[in-house]
């Protein structure tokens, strides 16, 4: 099967690693779009495969003008199937590349001090998630101003604004000492590839 | 929990979440092979597929049924 890592723009070179199943990374050009793929016997969700996928996507981001990370777990049976899917999605993927070019993703997680991830019941988990949603909404405005786009807990930030964004997170943390604010990333733009439904 | 190990734990969780749940789904608008005919369903929740294709991909067989 064909495992896809992402769609890339002006990829200078492939990262110096093998793919999730140990097969070499390969480039494909379809409908004017460039993809990076590798052969897999079966698409197994193992920690090793997930980390390797992430490593490849990071490597693609640092070697290209834009990358749309592909979701793990959607392999293609053969080249024809891949080509057909790309031809259906080509315009959407082009728009995706436009959207993410020059940007990284920064993640935001918020926890109240009493939250203990290990020992939660289902209800406690849901309540904690609701509290997090409310905290994220409160923190959103100044961060959204520095972003090209945002979705729940994730911000698409132009590379040149990353430092200002992180500074803003520090400021918000200082203003909200009762919360624990964690800013993760920079990530490749996993959350901004798909268009809003 | 130290703030550094919290950061590391959150980062790993975030990484796995991104790789498995986020990312663009290129095959989202399913193109399926039924015999030698490709059928494209865009935005519909009803899939038709050859049983063997789905079984190979370890997907539950959905032929002729609407998805929940």
Low-confidence stretches of chain A: none
Overall average pLDDT of chain B: 56
What's the N-to-C terminus distance of chain A?
Answer: 29 Å
Q: Total number of β-strand segments of chain A?
A: 8
In whole angstroms, the N-to-C terminal distance of chain B is: 41 Å
Number of helices of chain B: 2
Structural class by sheet pairing and helices of chain A = alpha+beta
Apparent shape of chain A = globular
Could you explain the architecture of this structure?
The complex is a heterodimer of chains A (197) and B (68). Helices cover 38% and strands 25% of the residues of chain A. In chain A, a hairpin with a 2-residue loop joins β6 (149-151) and β7 (154-158). A four-stranded antiparallel β-sheet of chain A has the order 2-3-1-4. In chain A, strands 6-7-5-8 form a four-stranded antiparallel β-sheet. The longest helix of chain A has 23 residues, at 122-144. Chain A is an alpha+beta fold. The mean pLDDT of chain A is 91. With 68 residues, chain B is an alpha+beta fold. Chain B is built from two helices and two strands. Chain B has helices at residues 3-21, 51-56, and strands spanning 31-34, 37-40. In chain B, β1 (31-34) and β2 form a beta hairpin. Chain B is rod-shaped and about 40 Å long. Residues 29-54 and 61-68 of chain B have low confidence and may be disordered. The interface between A and B is medium-sized, with 40 and 29 residues.
């Amino acid at each position: 099967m064909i495992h896809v890592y992402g769609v890339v723009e002006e990829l200078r070179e492939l990262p110096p690693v093998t793919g999730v199943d140990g097969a070499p990374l390969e480039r494909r050009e379809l409908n004017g779009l460039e993809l990076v793929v590798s052969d897999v016997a079966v698409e197994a969700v193992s920690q090793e495969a997930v980390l390797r996928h992430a490593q490849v996507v990071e490597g693609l981001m640092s070697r290209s003008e834009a990358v749309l990370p592909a979701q793990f777990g959607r392999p293609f049976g053969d080249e024809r199937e891949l080509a057909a899917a790309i031809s259906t999605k080509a315009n959407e993927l082009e728009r995706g590349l436009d959207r993410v070019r020059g940007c990284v993703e920064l993640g935001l997680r918020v926890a109240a001090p009493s939250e203990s991830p290990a020992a939660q019941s289902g209800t406690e988990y849901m309540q904690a998630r609701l509290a997090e949603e409310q905290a994220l909404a409160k923190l959103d405005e100044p961060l959204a101003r520095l972003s090209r786009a945002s979705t729940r807990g994730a911000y698409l930030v132009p590379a040149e604004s990353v430092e200002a964004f992180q500074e803003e997170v520090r400021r918000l943390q200082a203003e909200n000492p009762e919360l624990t604010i964690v800013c993760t990333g920079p990530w490749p733009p996993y959350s901004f590839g798909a268009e809003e439904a | 929990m130290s703030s550094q190990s919290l950061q590391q734990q959150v980062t790993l969780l975030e990484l796995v979440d991104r790789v498995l749940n986020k990312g663009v789904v290129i095959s989202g608008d399913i193109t399926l092979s039924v015999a030698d005919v490709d059928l494209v369903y865009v935005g519909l929740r009803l899939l038709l597929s050859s049983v063997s294709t789905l079984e190979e991909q370890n997907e539950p067989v959905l032929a002729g049924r609407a998805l929940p």
